[in-house]
Design brief:
Layout lengths: L2 H6 L1 H8 L6 H12 L7 E5 L5 H10 L4 E6 L9 E5 L6 H10 L3 E6 L9 H22 E12 L4 H9 L2 E7 L10 E9 L2
The structure holds S-adenosylmethionine.
Length: about 200
């Protein structure tokens, strides 16, 4: 987003006013309202969590009986109600770490990963989808049966194949774009409910 657009962006202003760490927090709020991906008491794994906007929303949605673990390559400042891990979703060891922190399987895995963008759309799209496949491997290892997942997808030629892949793992997969997602952005979200295990 250009500096002028950023200044005019209502979600950016709202995020500042509400003490949320990212405008992306509003996307999760909206998606959770529509799809109930995270409910009270849920154990949640937030993959690609920096700087922590989604994590803040997940902590509120899961409430005091829930548990939230956030994972990112980048350092994330401490956040009340969540455990933060600096790690890579492609590292198989991350799964045991998540299970250990949550004290069992997750009820929801939410994925908002973005690679370092190169500006070459085909490359960025392919890398982002590849990160999502890494996240499905994490979900396979940590998500409980009937659990839910959310994937951000940079839409492009590989999106349909990824949708087909997750459709085999969940009872219901919905493709959606929340209002807080800028129209000119190619990002879409796959809300996946009812993990088949
Ligand atoms: C759009 S940001 C996430 C924003 C976050 N959901 C929020 O609301 O604050 C995408 C994140 O994906 C992380 N990421 C990219 N590749 C990763 C990987 N292999 N493992 C873990 N995190 C990764 C990046 O470091 C970046 O912080």
């Amino acid at each position: 987003m250009r500096p002028r657009e950023a200044r005019r962006d209502p979600y950016r202003r709202l995020a500042r006013e509400q003490g949320l760490r990212s405008r992306a927090a509003f996307k999760l709020k909206e998606l959770n309202k529509s799809y109930r991906i995270i409910g009270p008491g849920f154990k949640v794994a937030d993959l690609g969590c920096a700087p922590g906007g989604w994590t803040q929303v997940a902590v509120r949605a899961a409430g005091s009986r829930g548990a939230v673990v956030g994972v990112d390559l980048a350092y994330v400042e401490e956040l009340p109600g969540a455990t933060l891990v600096r790690g890579d979703v492609s590292d198989p060891a991350i799964c045991d770490e998540i299970l250990g922190i949550l004290g069992g399987r997750a009820d929801a895995v939410i994925c908002d990963l973005s690679p370092e963008v190169t500006g070459n759309w085909s490359v960025d799209h392919a890398r982002q989808i590849s990160l999502n496949y890494d996240c499905t491997r994490v979900a396979d290892a940590v998500l409980s049966r009937k659990g839910n997942a959310l994937f951000k997808v940079f839409d492009g030629p590989y999106s349909a194949e990824f949708r087909g892949y997750v459709a085999k793992k969940f009872s219901r997969v919905s493709l959606t774009k929340p209002q807080a997602s800028r129209k000119q952005s190619s990002e879409l979200y796959f809300a996946c409910l009812g993990f088949l295990g």
